[in-house]
Amino acid sequence: MEIILKTNIEKLGAKDEIVNVKPGYARNYLIPRGYAIIATDSARKMHAENIKQRAHKEARILADAQVIADKLSALNVKIATKASDTGKIFGSINTIQLSEALAKEGFSIDRKSISMVEEHIKMLGAYDAKVKLHKRHT
After folding, report:
1. I want to staple 82 with a disulfide (CB 3.0 to 4.6 A). Which of 23, 24, 90, 102 is the partner?
2. H or E segment at 123?
3. Per-residue DSSP letters for 54-115?
4. What residues of the chain score a pLDDT lower than 50?
5. Which residues are CB-contacts of 65 (< 8 A; sequence separation ≥ 6)?
6. Burial class of residue 113 (count of CB atoms within 10 Å of its CB; 0-12, 13-18, 19+)
7. Mean pLDDT in the chain?
8. What is the pLDDT of residue 136?
């Protein structure tokens, strides 16, 4: 029996895949729990259209993420903080402060999407950070 998976199922397949399973497994487990639907002709057409629309939407989101990434790559952010004469920062700079500094520059980026080479910056200097804008783009 062919079914269309609505969620990822370990050792069976990923979401939106059409897979072959035994009829009892489909009727008694997958379909009642909402994990799958029967792959009828109308369900296949709807499935194909959903994938087509999702691909178009993903391409647009990826293009927007690329534009933001290009702007961010040219950006240098300065964060003001107290430091000693030797250059040691009182406290540290973390992703929260970096996210706030980016917000002042006009980029609304969640702190959880930002990763720095050093977890907490404790000395004055220039540092690099990576921002995850899209699941396929860093």
Report:
1. 90
2. strand 121-123
3. HHHHHHHHHHHHHHHHHHHHT--------B-TTSEEEEEE-HHHHHHHHHHTT----GGGEE
4. 138
5. 133, 134, 137
6. middle
7. 88
8. 61
Please measure the distance between the N-terminal and C-terminal CA atoms of the chain and give it in whole angstroms: 40
pLDDT reported for residue 123? 86
Continuous segment of H or E residues that includes residue 38: strand 36-38
- Domains, the chain, ordered by start: 2-69 (3.40.5.10), 74-131 (3.10.430.100)
13 phi, psi to nearest 5 deg: 170, 175
Give per-residue pLDDT as tens, 62-93.
Answer: 888 888 888 888 888 888 888 888 888 888 88
Other CB atoms within a 10 A radius of the CB of residue 27 amount to 14
> For tokens 């910056």, what's the residue?
121
Is-contact 56 26, C-beta < 8 A? Answer: no
Both tokens assigned to 78: 């300065």
Look up tokens 């609304």; give the residue: 108
Q: What is the pLDDT of residue 112?
A: 87
Q: For the chain, how big is the Rg over CA atoms in Å? A: 24
